[in-house]
Amino acid sequence: MKNFNFAIPGLVSFGAGCISSLGDRLKAKNMNRALLISDRGLEKAGVVGTVEEILKNAGITYEKFLDVEPNPSSETVLKAAEVFKANKLETIVCLGGGSPMDTGKAAAVMATNPGNPEDYAGGIDLFKNPIPPIVAIPTTAGTGSENTIFAVITNRKTNFKYSIVSGKLTPSIILLDPNLITKLPPLVAASTGMDALTHAVESFISRGATPFSDAMGQKAMEYIGKYLRRFVADRSDIEAASGMMLGSNFAGIAFSWGYLGMAHAMAHPLGGYYNVPHGIANAILLPHALKFNAIADKENRYLQIYEYIRASDGDIGFFEPSMLVEEVVELGKSIGIPESLSKVGVDETHIPAMAVDAMKGSQVSSWRMNPRTSTQADIEQLYRDALKPIEL
Ligand SMILES: [Zn+2]
Protein backbone atom coordinates (compact mmCIF):
# COMPACT_ATOMS: atom_id res chain seq x y z
CA MET A 1 0.00 0.00 0.00
CA LYS A 2 1.35 3.44 -0.88
CA ASN A 3 1.91 6.26 1.63
CA PHE A 4 -0.77 8.92 1.91
CA ASN A 5 -2.00 11.88 3.97
CA PHE A 6 -5.32 13.42 4.79
CA ALA A 7 -6.65 16.24 6.94
CA ILE A 8 -10.11 17.67 7.42
CA PRO A 9 -9.16 20.63 9.55
CA GLY A 10 -12.57 22.33 9.57
CA LEU A 11 -15.59 21.70 11.75
CA VAL A 12 -18.44 20.22 9.73
CA SER A 13 -21.92 20.73 11.18
CA PHE A 14 -24.79 18.89 9.50
CA GLY A 15 -28.51 19.22 10.07
CA ALA A 16 -31.74 20.89 8.99
CA GLY A 17 -31.66 24.41 10.43
CA CYS A 18 -27.97 24.32 11.40
CA ILE A 19 -27.23 27.68 9.71
CA SER A 20 -28.85 29.33 12.75
CA SER A 21 -25.65 28.47 14.65
CA LEU A 22 -23.49 30.62 12.31
CA GLY A 23 -23.32 33.71 14.52
CA ASP A 24 -22.44 31.79 17.68
CA ARG A 25 -19.81 29.77 15.85
CA LEU A 26 -18.15 32.92 14.51
CA LYS A 27 -18.17 34.55 17.92
CA ALA A 28 -16.75 31.43 19.55
CA LYS A 29 -13.73 31.81 17.25
CA ASN A 30 -13.57 35.55 17.91
CA MET A 31 -14.48 36.39 14.31
CA ASN A 32 -16.66 39.48 14.63
CA ARG A 33 -16.18 41.15 11.24
CA ALA A 34 -17.23 39.11 8.21
CA LEU A 35 -17.31 39.43 4.44
CA LEU A 36 -20.42 37.63 3.16
CA ILE A 37 -19.88 36.40 -0.40
CA SER A 38 -22.86 35.17 -2.37
CA ASP A 39 -24.69 35.89 -5.64
CA ARG A 40 -27.69 37.86 -6.88
CA GLY A 41 -29.80 34.74 -7.42
CA LEU A 42 -29.51 33.79 -3.75
CA GLU A 43 -30.21 37.40 -2.78
CA LYS A 44 -33.47 37.30 -4.80
CA ALA A 45 -34.37 33.92 -3.31
CA GLY A 46 -34.08 35.46 0.20
CA VAL A 47 -31.24 33.17 1.31
CA VAL A 48 -28.78 36.06 1.69
CA GLY A 49 -31.35 37.89 3.82
CA THR A 50 -31.75 34.89 6.10
CA VAL A 51 -28.01 34.74 6.73
CA GLU A 52 -27.85 38.52 7.26
CA GLU A 53 -30.50 38.22 9.97
CA ILE A 54 -28.45 35.53 11.71
CA LEU A 55 -25.32 37.72 11.59
CA LYS A 56 -27.19 40.79 12.84
CA ASN A 57 -28.81 38.90 15.70
CA ALA A 58 -25.40 37.63 16.79
CA GLY A 59 -23.89 41.13 16.68
CA ILE A 60 -21.49 40.29 13.84
CA THR A 61 -20.45 43.26 11.67
CA TYR A 62 -20.44 42.37 7.99
CA GLU A 63 -20.02 43.61 4.43
CA LYS A 64 -21.59 41.94 1.41
CA PHE A 65 -20.12 41.02 -1.96
CA LEU A 66 -22.88 39.60 -4.17
CA ASP A 67 -21.60 40.18 -7.70
CA VAL A 68 -20.36 36.65 -8.27
CA GLU A 69 -21.04 35.27 -11.75
CA PRO A 70 -21.07 31.62 -12.88
CA ASN A 71 -17.49 30.46 -13.61
CA PRO A 72 -16.17 33.45 -11.59
CA SER A 73 -13.27 35.50 -12.96
CA SER A 74 -9.95 36.71 -11.58
CA GLU A 75 -11.37 40.27 -11.58
CA THR A 76 -14.29 39.21 -9.39
CA VAL A 77 -11.87 37.64 -6.91
CA LEU A 78 -9.79 40.84 -6.74
CA LYS A 79 -12.89 43.00 -6.20
CA ALA A 80 -14.06 40.78 -3.35
CA ALA A 81 -10.57 40.86 -1.79
CA GLU A 82 -10.62 44.67 -1.99
CA VAL A 83 -13.85 44.83 0.02
CA PHE A 84 -12.24 42.57 2.62
CA LYS A 85 -9.11 44.71 2.90
CA ALA A 86 -10.85 48.09 2.77
CA ASN A 87 -13.09 47.17 5.69
CA LYS A 88 -10.43 45.35 7.73
CA LEU A 89 -12.59 42.24 8.00
CA GLU A 90 -11.63 39.02 9.79
CA THR A 91 -13.37 36.15 8.03
CA ILE A 92 -14.99 35.27 4.71
CA VAL A 93 -18.40 33.61 4.79
CA CYS A 94 -19.14 31.91 1.44
CA LEU A 95 -22.80 31.25 0.80
CA GLY A 96 -23.71 29.51 -2.43
CA GLY A 97 -22.88 26.90 -4.97
CA GLY A 98 -19.38 26.49 -6.30
CA SER A 99 -19.03 30.02 -7.69
CA PRO A 100 -19.38 32.01 -4.44
CA MET A 101 -17.33 29.40 -2.60
CA ASP A 102 -14.49 29.41 -5.12
CA THR A 103 -14.57 33.23 -5.21
CA GLY A 104 -14.44 33.41 -1.42
CA LYS A 105 -11.56 30.95 -1.15
CA ALA A 106 -9.51 32.74 -3.80
CA ALA A 107 -10.41 36.14 -2.28
CA ALA A 108 -9.04 34.88 1.04
CA VAL A 109 -5.71 34.26 -0.71
CA MET A 110 -5.75 37.69 -2.37
CA ALA A 111 -6.72 39.45 0.90
CA THR A 112 -3.23 38.82 2.26
CA ASN A 113 -1.05 37.99 -0.76
CA PRO A 114 0.18 40.29 -3.55
CA GLY A 115 -0.39 40.08 -7.32
CA ASN A 116 -3.14 38.21 -9.15
CA PRO A 117 -4.93 34.95 -8.34
CA GLU A 118 -3.26 33.30 -11.38
CA ASP A 119 0.10 33.79 -9.67
CA TYR A 120 -0.89 31.05 -7.20
CA ALA A 121 -2.13 28.47 -9.74
CA GLY A 122 -0.23 25.65 -11.45
CA GLY A 123 1.26 24.15 -8.28
CA ILE A 124 0.44 23.39 -4.65
CA ASP A 125 0.74 25.82 -1.69
CA LEU A 126 2.13 28.64 -3.83
CA PHE A 127 0.98 31.51 -1.59
CA LYS A 128 3.13 32.51 1.40
CA ASN A 129 1.07 34.70 3.73
CA PRO A 130 -1.52 33.20 6.10
CA ILE A 131 -5.08 33.71 4.85
CA PRO A 132 -8.21 34.67 6.79
CA PRO A 133 -10.45 31.83 8.02
CA ILE A 134 -13.14 30.75 5.56
CA VAL A 135 -16.68 29.70 6.44
CA ALA A 136 -18.67 27.74 3.84
CA ILE A 137 -22.43 27.30 3.59
CA PRO A 138 -23.31 25.33 0.45
CA THR A 139 -26.65 25.97 -1.25
CA THR A 140 -26.32 23.16 -3.79
CA ALA A 141 -25.36 19.50 -3.47
CA GLY A 142 -22.98 19.98 -5.29
CA THR A 143 -19.57 21.04 -5.86
CA GLY A 144 -18.21 19.86 -2.53
CA SER A 145 -16.14 23.05 -2.63
CA GLU A 146 -17.03 23.64 1.04
CA ASN A 147 -14.57 20.90 1.95
CA THR A 148 -11.98 20.95 -0.80
CA ILE A 149 -8.44 22.25 -1.11
CA PHE A 150 -9.23 23.89 -4.47
CA ALA A 151 -10.48 27.28 -5.71
CA VAL A 152 -11.34 27.19 -9.43
CA ILE A 153 -11.28 30.59 -11.18
CA THR A 154 -11.50 31.66 -14.85
CA ASN A 155 -9.11 33.96 -16.69
CA ARG A 156 -11.54 35.80 -19.01
CA LYS A 157 -8.77 36.91 -21.38
CA THR A 158 -7.54 33.40 -22.16
CA ASN A 159 -10.71 31.44 -21.20
CA PHE A 160 -8.44 29.29 -19.00
CA LYS A 161 -10.02 27.88 -15.85
CA TYR A 162 -7.23 27.47 -13.32
CA SER A 163 -7.09 26.03 -9.81
CA ILE A 164 -5.41 27.40 -6.70
CA VAL A 165 -4.53 24.32 -4.65
CA SER A 166 -3.73 24.29 -0.93
CA GLY A 167 -4.92 22.53 2.21
CA LYS A 168 -5.17 26.04 3.71
CA LEU A 169 -8.17 26.69 1.43
CA THR A 170 -10.28 24.17 3.32
CA PRO A 171 -12.92 26.19 5.20
CA SER A 172 -12.64 26.15 8.98
CA ILE A 173 -16.42 26.11 9.59
CA ILE A 174 -18.75 24.23 7.25
CA LEU A 175 -22.49 24.31 7.77
CA LEU A 176 -24.42 21.65 5.81
CA ASP A 177 -28.07 22.64 6.07
CA PRO A 178 -30.37 20.57 3.82
CA ASN A 179 -33.13 23.19 4.21
CA LEU A 180 -31.06 25.40 1.88
CA ILE A 181 -31.44 23.07 -1.12
CA THR A 182 -35.14 22.24 -0.96
CA LYS A 183 -36.09 24.96 -3.48
CA LEU A 184 -33.51 24.27 -6.18
CA PRO A 185 -34.82 24.13 -9.77
CA PRO A 186 -34.85 20.49 -10.96
CA LEU A 187 -32.07 20.92 -13.54
CA VAL A 188 -29.78 22.55 -10.96
CA ALA A 189 -30.50 19.71 -8.52
CA ALA A 190 -29.78 17.20 -11.30
CA SER A 191 -26.61 18.76 -12.70
CA THR A 192 -25.01 19.61 -9.36
CA GLY A 193 -25.88 16.09 -8.14
CA MET A 194 -24.15 14.64 -11.22
CA ASP A 195 -21.12 16.83 -10.46
CA ALA A 196 -21.00 15.31 -6.96
CA LEU A 197 -21.31 11.83 -8.45
CA THR A 198 -18.48 12.62 -10.88
CA HIS A 199 -16.29 13.69 -7.93
CA ALA A 200 -16.95 10.43 -6.12
CA VAL A 201 -16.48 8.24 -9.22
CA GLU A 202 -13.38 9.99 -10.55
CA SER A 203 -11.62 10.05 -7.18
CA PHE A 204 -12.46 6.34 -6.76
CA ILE A 205 -10.74 5.34 -10.03
CA SER A 206 -8.04 8.04 -9.92
CA ARG A 207 -4.32 7.34 -9.83
CA GLY A 208 -4.31 9.33 -6.59
CA ALA A 209 -6.96 7.22 -4.82
CA THR A 210 -6.10 6.21 -1.24
CA PRO A 211 -7.96 4.07 1.33
CA PHE A 212 -9.22 7.33 2.87
CA SER A 213 -10.49 8.86 -0.38
CA ASP A 214 -12.03 5.48 -1.25
CA ALA A 215 -13.95 5.40 2.02
CA MET A 216 -15.34 8.89 1.48
CA GLY A 217 -16.07 8.23 -2.19
CA GLN A 218 -17.88 4.96 -1.45
CA LYS A 219 -20.18 6.56 1.11
CA ALA A 220 -20.77 9.43 -1.31
CA MET A 221 -21.72 7.02 -4.13
CA GLU A 222 -24.00 5.10 -1.77
CA TYR A 223 -25.92 8.27 -0.84
CA ILE A 224 -25.95 9.79 -4.32
CA GLY A 225 -27.00 6.47 -5.87
CA LYS A 226 -29.80 6.16 -3.35
CA TYR A 227 -31.03 9.75 -3.26
CA LEU A 228 -30.24 11.64 -6.49
CA ARG A 229 -33.28 10.47 -8.49
CA ARG A 230 -35.56 10.94 -5.49
CA PHE A 231 -34.16 14.43 -4.77
CA VAL A 232 -34.63 15.63 -8.35
CA ALA A 233 -38.20 14.27 -8.28
CA ASP A 234 -39.02 16.20 -5.07
CA ARG A 235 -36.50 18.68 -3.70
CA SER A 236 -38.65 19.27 -0.63
CA ASP A 237 -38.07 15.62 0.41
CA ILE A 238 -35.81 16.47 3.35
CA GLU A 239 -34.39 12.96 3.71
CA ALA A 240 -33.32 12.97 0.05
CA ALA A 241 -31.96 16.52 0.41
CA SER A 242 -29.99 15.43 3.49
CA GLY A 243 -28.57 12.41 1.67
CA MET A 244 -27.48 14.57 -1.26
CA MET A 245 -25.96 17.24 1.01
CA LEU A 246 -23.86 14.62 2.79
CA GLY A 247 -23.07 12.70 -0.40
CA SER A 248 -21.82 15.89 -2.04
CA ASN A 249 -19.73 16.81 0.99
CA PHE A 250 -18.15 13.35 1.26
CA ALA A 251 -17.43 13.40 -2.48
CA GLY A 252 -15.69 16.77 -2.05
CA ILE A 253 -13.51 15.32 0.70
CA ALA A 254 -12.82 12.25 -1.48
CA PHE A 255 -11.49 14.28 -4.39
CA SER A 256 -9.50 16.66 -2.20
CA TRP A 257 -7.39 13.65 -1.19
CA GLY A 258 -7.85 11.29 -4.17
CA TYR A 259 -8.10 13.85 -7.00
CA LEU A 260 -10.16 13.67 -10.19
CA GLY A 261 -9.92 12.52 -13.81
CA MET A 262 -10.76 13.03 -17.45
CA ALA A 263 -14.34 14.33 -17.06
CA HIS A 264 -13.13 17.22 -14.88
CA ALA A 265 -10.06 17.86 -17.02
CA MET A 266 -12.42 18.36 -19.97
CA ALA A 267 -15.25 20.08 -18.07
CA HIS A 268 -13.20 23.10 -16.98
CA PRO A 269 -12.41 24.31 -20.53
CA LEU A 270 -16.13 23.99 -21.39
CA GLY A 271 -16.79 26.44 -18.57
CA GLY A 272 -13.98 28.73 -19.71
CA TYR A 273 -14.82 28.78 -23.44
CA TYR A 274 -18.59 28.21 -23.56
CA ASN A 275 -19.69 29.06 -20.01
CA VAL A 276 -21.30 25.61 -19.74
CA PRO A 277 -22.35 25.13 -16.08
CA HIS A 278 -19.81 22.86 -14.40
CA GLY A 279 -22.35 20.22 -13.36
CA ILE A 280 -23.87 19.98 -16.85
CA ALA A 281 -20.41 19.62 -18.42
CA ASN A 282 -19.50 16.79 -16.06
CA ALA A 283 -22.86 15.06 -16.39
CA ILE A 284 -22.46 14.91 -20.18
CA LEU A 285 -18.78 13.94 -20.06
CA LEU A 286 -18.84 11.30 -17.30
CA PRO A 287 -20.11 8.40 -19.47
CA HIS A 288 -17.57 9.28 -22.20
CA ALA A 289 -14.76 9.34 -19.64
CA LEU A 290 -15.89 6.01 -18.16
CA LYS A 291 -16.03 4.46 -21.63
CA PHE A 292 -12.51 5.72 -22.41
CA ASN A 293 -11.15 4.57 -19.04
CA ALA A 294 -12.78 1.12 -19.07
CA ILE A 295 -9.56 -0.69 -20.06
CA ALA A 296 -7.85 0.80 -16.99
CA ASP A 297 -10.41 -0.62 -14.56
CA LYS A 298 -8.64 -2.26 -11.60
CA GLU A 299 -9.97 -4.25 -8.63
CA ASN A 300 -13.46 -4.39 -10.13
CA ARG A 301 -14.02 -0.74 -9.30
CA TYR A 302 -16.46 -0.29 -12.17
CA LEU A 303 -18.58 -3.06 -10.70
CA GLN A 304 -18.54 -1.40 -7.28
CA ILE A 305 -19.63 1.94 -8.76
CA TYR A 306 -22.37 0.15 -10.71
CA GLU A 307 -23.65 -1.49 -7.54
CA TYR A 308 -23.91 1.87 -5.80
CA ILE A 309 -25.71 3.80 -8.50
CA ARG A 310 -27.95 1.35 -10.40
CA ALA A 311 -31.66 2.02 -10.37
CA SER A 312 -32.72 -1.61 -9.94
CA ASP A 313 -31.54 -4.06 -7.29
CA GLY A 314 -31.93 -7.44 -8.98
CA ASP A 315 -29.06 -9.89 -9.58
CA ILE A 316 -26.31 -8.32 -11.65
CA GLY A 317 -25.09 -11.60 -13.17
CA PHE A 318 -22.14 -11.20 -15.53
CA PHE A 319 -20.76 -7.64 -15.35
CA GLU A 320 -18.87 -5.74 -18.00
CA PRO A 321 -17.77 -2.06 -17.85
CA SER A 322 -20.15 -1.02 -20.64
CA MET A 323 -23.02 -1.74 -18.20
CA LEU A 324 -21.76 1.08 -15.95
CA VAL A 325 -21.48 3.47 -18.89
CA GLU A 326 -25.06 2.67 -19.89
CA GLU A 327 -26.32 3.05 -16.32
CA VAL A 328 -24.77 6.52 -16.03
CA VAL A 329 -26.36 7.52 -19.34
CA GLU A 330 -29.75 6.24 -18.15
CA LEU A 331 -29.35 8.06 -14.83
CA GLY A 332 -28.62 11.31 -16.64
CA LYS A 333 -31.60 10.87 -18.98
CA SER A 334 -33.96 10.08 -16.11
CA ILE A 335 -33.15 13.35 -14.33
CA GLY A 336 -33.19 15.59 -17.41
CA ILE A 337 -29.48 15.99 -18.25
CA PRO A 338 -28.93 17.14 -21.89
CA GLU A 339 -27.67 14.23 -23.99
CA SER A 340 -24.78 15.98 -25.76
CA LEU A 341 -22.48 19.01 -25.70
CA SER A 342 -24.06 20.39 -28.88
CA LYS A 343 -27.34 20.66 -26.94
CA VAL A 344 -25.66 23.17 -24.60
CA GLY A 345 -24.12 25.36 -27.30
CA VAL A 346 -20.72 23.73 -27.80
CA ASP A 347 -19.33 23.32 -31.33
CA GLU A 348 -16.07 22.17 -32.94
CA THR A 349 -14.45 25.64 -32.99
CA HIS A 350 -12.46 25.54 -29.76
CA ILE A 351 -11.85 21.80 -29.44
CA PRO A 352 -8.06 21.92 -30.07
CA ALA A 353 -7.59 24.84 -27.65
CA MET A 354 -9.80 23.17 -25.03
CA ALA A 355 -7.81 19.94 -25.33
CA VAL A 356 -4.59 21.89 -24.67
CA ASP A 357 -6.14 23.52 -21.59
CA ALA A 358 -7.47 20.16 -20.33
CA MET A 359 -3.87 18.96 -20.06
CA LYS A 360 -2.61 21.95 -18.03
CA GLY A 361 -2.46 22.26 -14.26
CA SER A 362 -0.48 21.11 -11.26
CA GLN A 363 1.11 17.73 -10.58
CA VAL A 364 -2.26 16.59 -9.21
CA SER A 365 -4.27 17.86 -12.19
CA SER A 366 -7.32 15.90 -13.31
CA TRP A 367 -5.60 14.99 -16.58
CA ARG A 368 -2.55 13.54 -14.82
CA MET A 369 -4.63 11.67 -12.25
CA ASN A 370 -6.89 10.02 -14.83
CA PRO A 371 -6.37 6.23 -14.73
CA ARG A 372 -5.76 5.92 -18.50
CA THR A 373 -2.94 7.92 -20.06
CA SER A 374 -4.20 10.20 -22.82
CA THR A 375 -2.88 12.46 -25.57
CA GLN A 376 -4.20 15.72 -26.96
CA ALA A 377 -5.62 13.74 -29.90
CA ASP A 378 -7.53 11.45 -27.48
CA ILE A 379 -9.05 14.44 -25.73
CA GLU A 380 -10.03 16.13 -28.99
CA GLN A 381 -11.73 12.89 -30.05
CA LEU A 382 -13.58 12.66 -26.73
CA TYR A 383 -14.87 16.24 -27.16
CA ARG A 384 -16.03 15.36 -30.69
CA ASP A 385 -17.72 12.20 -29.44
CA ALA A 386 -19.51 14.17 -26.71
CA LEU A 387 -20.98 16.60 -29.25
CA LYS A 388 -23.38 13.75 -30.11
CA PRO A 389 -25.32 11.34 -27.88
CA ILE A 390 -22.96 8.60 -26.71
CA GLU A 391 -22.67 5.41 -28.78
CA LEU A 392 -23.07 2.51 -26.40
ZN1 LIG B 1 -16.78 19.18 -10.16
Q: Can you walk me through this structure?
A:
This protein has 392 residues and is an alpha/beta fold. It folds into two domains: 11-180, Rossmann fold (3-Layer(aba) Sandwich); 186-386, Dehydroquinate synthase-like - alpha domain (Dehydroquinate synthase-like, alpha domain). Helix content is 48%, strand content 10%. It contains 15 helices and eight strands. It has helices at 22-28, 40-44, 47-57, 74-86, 98-112, 186-205, 211-233, 238-258, 262-274, 278-293, 301-309, 321-334, 351-358, 366-369, 376-386; strands at residues 11-14, 33-37, 61-65, 91-96, 134-138, 150-155, 160-165, 173-176. The strands form two sheets. The chain has a six-stranded parallel sheet, sandwiched between helices. It has a two-stranded antiparallel ribbon with strand order 6-7. Strand 6 and strand 7 (160-165) form a beta hairpin. Helix 4 (74-86) crosses helix 5 (98-112) and helix 10 packs antiparallel against helix 12 (321-334). It is globular and about 60 Å long. The chain starts with 10 loop residues before the first strand and ends in a 6-residue tail after the last helix. Residues 143, 195, 198-199, 264, 278, 282 line the site of zinc ion.
Please give a quick description of this structure.
This protein is α/β, with parallel strands linked by helices. It contains 15 helices and 8 strands.
Keywords:
binds zinc ion, Dehydroquinate synthase-like, alpha domain, 6-stranded parallel β-sheet, Rossmann fold, 2 domains, 392 residues, alpha/beta
